[in-house]
Design a protein that fits this description.
Strand content: 15-25%
Low-confidence stretches: none
Organism: Youxingia wuxianensis
Number of helices: 7
Distance between the termini: 13 Å
Keywords: Carbohydrate metabolism, Hydrolase
Number of strands: 10
Radius of gyration: 17 Å
Pathway: Amino-sugar metabolism; N-acetylneuraminate degradation; D-fructose 6-phosphate from N-acetylneuraminate: step 5/5
CATH topology: Rossmann fold
GO cellular component, one term: cytoplasm
CATH class: Alpha Beta
Strand order of the largest sheet: 1-10-9-6-2-3-5
Bound molecules: 2-amino-2-deoxy-6-O-phosphono-alpha-D-glucopyranose
Structural class: alpha/beta
Helix content: 25-40%
Enzyme class: hydrolase
Length: about 240
């Protein structure tokens, strides 16, 4: 694992954009695994600026998002589909048909999960997977549990995740209780993983996930077994390691 220390959120976001842009330059048709949450927003802003300055093009990029809340339509302002449009896709030249996200409105959820796994396979897997870190150690929406889940699945969100994500909703009751998420297989098979962490409240989990035992009770700990992981964080988030 490579650890990159950034002074603050802005520097972390710039360094993340550097890594993403280097990947796109190396392979303009890269498959990027993309994440939501507040942590990557700065990196997406940087990517938009660099696109506007003609420093990077997304014309051949394929984007595969990690997860989506169950039951929300893509036009719902709380959906991750909407988040990706608002923070990145609407402002760069990525083709809409190259932006993928699990469909939480599919009639047959099992079939949708299989479709998403087949889709990632058909794209040749993920070149660079961007990740955030949940306060309980989740990645995507792979919540703590007895086993690591391999494929895309429907997950019941834990109480701590519902609490953590309620800040994005006007009422706690509005936070969806379920989500569709990719499993660990495409993340572990990604050629490179870039995990971003910012803020003091992530510091204990960074320590547990990367320096504690590998256990499904701390889903991100599986990344200790990945051959090419970059942990990029600001000083506060990396303060306990
Ligand atoms: N499903 C997302 C995760 O992909 C994200 O990493 C996590 C952390 O979010 P934040 O970056 O806002 O702390 O939140 C959500 O639950």
């Amino acid at each position: 694992m490579k650890i990159i220390l950034a002074e603050n959120y802005l520097e972390m976001s710039r360094k993340a954009a550097d890594i993403l842009c280097a990947q796109i330059t190396l392979k303009p048709s890269s498959v990027l695994g993309l994440a939501t949450g507040s942590t990557p927003i700065g990196a997406y802003q940087e990517l938009v600026s660099r696109y506007q300055e003609n420093k990077v093009s997304f014309s051949r990029i394929r984007a595969v998002n990690l997860d989506e809340y169950q039951g929300l339509s893509p036009d719902d302002q709380q959906s991750y589909a909407y988040f990706m449009r608002r923070h990145l896709f609407d402002f760069v030249n990525i083709l809409p048909e190259n932006c993928h996200i699990p469909n939480p409105q599919a009639q047959d959820v099992k079939e949708e999960c299989l479709r998403y796994d087949r889709l990632i396979d058909s794209l040749g897997g993920i070149d660079l997977q961007l990740l955030g870190l949940g306060r309980n150690g989740h990645i995507g929406f792979n919540e703590p549990g007895e086993t690591f889940m391999k494929g895309t699945h429907c997950v019941a969100l834990s109480q701590s995740t519902i609490e953590a994500n309620r800040r994005f909703f006007s009422d706690k009751e509005e936070v969806p209780r379920q989500a569709l998420t990719v499993g660990m297989a495409p993340i572990m098979q990604a050629r490179q993983v870039l995990l971003l962490v910012s803020g003091k409240d992530k510091a204990p989990m960074v320590k547990e996930a990367f320096f504690g035992p590998v256990t499904p009770w701390v889903p991100a700990s599986i990344l200790q077994l990945h051959k090419d992981v970059i942990l990029l964080g600001d000083q506060a988030a990396l303060s306990e390691i």
